[in-house]
Design brief:
Layout lengths: L2 H31 L4 H10 L11 H34 L4 H41 L12 H5 L2 H36 L1
Amino acid sequence: MNEKNKEKITIVLFSIVLLMFLLLLSYKLVLFFTPLTDAQKNVFLFLDGKQKLSTSFTAAEVSHLEDVKQVMKYADYMFYILLLGFTLTIIFYRKKKDFLLNLLHLGGKVTFAVMILLGAFSLIFFDALFAMFHRIFFPQGNWLFAADSKIIQTFPLDFFISLSRNIFLLTLFLGILFILLGYYFKDVDSDRN
């Protein structure tokens, strides 16, 4: 495989890694900074394995929250794998500054474009995206609950809409930041030469 093809493959892979990394980073940051009710704090402490779950949840709700705990654990694993991939790419290409800056710039553009598409789609079809997400990550179907259930009262749809919006906006901002960093460092580098 020639050098040009290797670079193209690297750009595509890095763009995917950066998009997923920034999305998971945003998810983690938004969750960390989102104000929670006492009931929500109890659930998140349970999901982190730090506390028992309130006894007011039904067996079906507890089953779903156990599944959520697994998905969150896999998301953590994926985050650290992506962080490692991102870091290794930066280290590996640190001496090829032009290529590295191009990677960051193009990765930022891909992140920006995907988030704009996802954002537009979610504005129109949030319920469908929400359902698709749950069908993918909870295929056993234990995620549908009555409107008056404890889990829905604890985590109403507005909670997920707000969370999703904030994750979207932060990821979009980070994508823009990578685009601007690419431009800035290219300009700084060209001024030095």
